[in-house]
Amino acid sequence: MSGAVVAGVDGSRRSLTAAEWAAREAARRGRVLRLVHASPPLPRRVSPVPGADAWQHVGEQMLGQTVADFRARDPDLEIVGEHTAAEPAEALLAAAAGAGLLVVGTRGWGGFDGLALGSVALRVAAMAQCPVVTVPEARRTGGGWDGGPTGEVRLGFDAHAPAEAPADFAFRAAQERGVPLRVVHAWALPPASPSAWMLTVLEEDRAMWEDQESQVVSDALRPWRERYPEVTVVPDVILLNPAEALVRASERAGLLVIGRRAATRPTELRLGPVAHPVLHHAHCPVAVVPHPAL
């Protein structure tokens, strides 16, 4: 099912919020919505075979009802359900092969309330072949994420080593939504500068370096501005740790887009020092877009 929007559902409110986001995205893209539920076998020591069969049946019923509910909401959207006995992460990674997008809730039924991101979401975000969107519980933040497609699209962008796939994803998302794209480029002071470590930064030094960074960003964005002339681009050059800058940027965003280097081995978990904290602390849906190592 090439190009489908895939969403994992487990009956929890969080997973249904993610599936609702996925349904809107599938409708926007004109793609099939594929709802996937995994009911891994119960351990034999916990449940005899009849209990395991009942467990599978409950999962099938939940998925069938979810598919029916979503079809009733949007009769024009093509929706299919898929039930599997695999582990949730394995099921979603398999479904992601050939998909256009994989959407998951930040956590399902399992885990602890103090954890922002569950193990399944973390694993698929790090390993899926296609872009993955993690969707938090809906909440209002004064104009940003409220459970609907509101607010700007915001892109985490390294102008010194721009990654093609995340930028393309962000520009297309802004174009499809008809909203501005805010490009967040976080920068640090030159390591050799004493002011980076022990002295207060002189305003004229900071202004000079900031102007240089702004020019680098402008030059790096030129190919995408030409490719997407109708998208309003708002560069945001910030003297701040990249992860902190992106978490702040997520507070009033509808969607935050970040990149990750694609895994070179099938079992490799690859979330860098920016993506990992952003996924744990972002206030809006986050799209993690794999790209080749630069």
From TrEMBL:
InterPro entries: Rossmann-like_a/b/a_fold (IPR014729), Universal_stress_UspA (IPR006015), UspA (IPR006016). It comes from the Bacteria. Residues 4-136, 156-290 form the UspA domain. PANTHER family: ADENINE NUCLEOTIDE ALPHA HYDROLASES-LIKE SUPERFAMILY PROTEIN. Belongs to the universal stress protein A family. This is Nucleotide-binding universal stress protein, UspA family. It comes from Streptomyces melanosporofaciens.
